[in-house]
Design brief:
single chain, 267 residues, alpha/beta, Rossmann fold, seven-stranded mixed beta sheet, 10 helices, 7 strands, binds S-adenosylmethionine, SAM-dependent_MTases_sf, transferase, SAM-dependent methyltransferase, SAM_dep_MeTrfase_SAV2177_type
Length: 267
C-alpha cells in the first residue's frame, strides 16, 4: 500500500479521543478530522487547551509526589499519545529506577508508545483485573505498591457506579501502599461548555461531568489525601489558584490496611 493511501485513510478517519486530545495540546500525532474537531471545540471553549495543560501539570506533580513517597511502579491508564512531560520523563528525573507502564484501549496509542520506546499495554480500564494481568506480563509486580494514574479517562465511562467498581477492583488487586491519582471532568452548566461537550459526544463518544461528592464517593476504601477532591490548579500547590467553579476535579488516595492512618505520603 502506498504512503499516499495511508495518508488518505488517516485524513478520513473519524476523530478519536486520543488524537483529538493530542491536537488540543498542539501535538502532531493526529489527523485532519481530529484537528478540525479540536478547532471547533476551541471556538466554543477557548480556554480548553489551557485547562488540559493544567490537568497535565497536575498529573506531573502527582507522579513526582508518588515517586518521592517511594512508589517505584507507575501505571498510567488511558495514557493518551506521547507528549512532553509524560510519566517516564518525570521518573527519569525523580526516580530513574522506577518502572513506568502505559495502558490504553486505543491500539494507535499503544503502537505510538511502543515506537517511543515505552512499555505499553493494550487493555480496557473497564476490565481492571484483566488489565493488571496484562500489565503483570509486561513486568508489573503486583506484590509491590503501584501508583495508578487515571487522568482524563474515567470521563469516558457513563456509569458512575461502574467507575466506583473499577476503582474498588484496582484497590483490592494492588497491595497496601499503592496510590490512586485521578482526574474527573466536572459537571458544568455554562452554555458554551455544554455545546462543546455535546459536539464532542456526537463526534467521539461519552464525556461525563461529575459532582464533587460523586468523585469523593469513588474513594471508598481508599484514604483520600489532602487537599481532598480539588481543582487541578490547586492540588498540592503552595499557592493554589482559587477557582469557584472548577471545570475538573483532581484527587489522590492511598490503599492502606483497615484502620491504619499514616502521616501523609510525600510530606
Ligand atoms: C483525553 S485522553 C487523556 C490522556 C492523558 N491521560 C491526559 O490526562 O492527558 C483519554 C485517553 O483514554 C483512553 N481511553 C478511553 N477509554 C478507555 C478505556 N475504557 N480503557 C482504556 N483507555 C481508554 C483514550 O484512548 C485516550 O487515549
Amino acid at each position: 500500500m502506498s504512503g499516499r493511501r495511508i495518508a488518505m485513510v488517516g485524513a478520513d478517519a473519524l476523530p478519536s479521543a486520543a488524537r483529538v486530545h493530542n491536537a488540543l495540546l498542539g501535538g502532531a500525532r493526529n489527523y485532519r478530522s481530529d484537528r478540525e474537531l479540536a478547532r471547533q471545540l476551541l471556538a466554543l471553549s477557548p480556554t480548553l487547551a489551557d485547562r488540559l495543560c493544567a490537568r497535565r501539570a497536575f498529573a506531573g506533580r502527582a507522579v513526582r509526589w508518588m515517586l518521592v513517597a517511594g512508589i517505584r511502579q507507575v501505571v498510567d491508564i488511558g495514557a493518551g499519545l506521547p507528549v512532553p512531560g509524560d510519566a517516564h520523563e518525570i521518573a527519569a528525573d525523580a526516580a530513574p529506577d522506577a518502572h513506568v507502564l502505559y495502558i490504553d484501549n486505543d491500539p494507535v496509542v499503544v503502537a505510538a508508545r511502543l515506537i517511543h520506546g515505552s512499555v505499553s499495554v493494550h487493555a480496557d480500564v473497564r476490565n481492571p483485573r484483566c488489565l493488571l494481568r496484562s500489565a503483570a506480563v509486561r513486568g508489573l509486580d503486583l506484590q509491590r505498591p503501584v501508583g495508578l494514574l487515571l487522568t482524563g479517562v474515567l470521563d469516558h465511562i457513563k456509569d458512575s457506579y461502574e467507575v466506583a467498581q473499577i476503582l474498588n477492583q484496582l484497590r483490592t488487586a494492588t497491595p497496601y501502599g499503592s496510590v490512586l491519582v485521578l482526574s474527573a471532568y466536572a459537571d458544568n452548566d455554562e452554555e458554551k461548555t455544554r455545546e462543546a461537550v455535546n459536539l464532542y459526544r456526537s463526534r467521539v463518544g461519552p464525556l461525563i461531568g461529575r459532582a464533587r461528592d460523586e468523585v469523593a464517593s469513588w474513594f471508598a476504601g481508599w484514604e483520600l489525601v489532602a487537599p481532598g477532591v480539588s481543582s487541578p490548579q490547586s492540588w498540592r500547590l503552595q499557592s493554589p489558584v482559587p477557582d469557584a467553579h472548577p471545570w475538573e476535579w483532581a484527587a489522590a488516595g492511598l490503599n492502606l490496611p483497615p484502620g491504619h492512618r499514616v502521616a501523609e505520603a510525600g510530606t
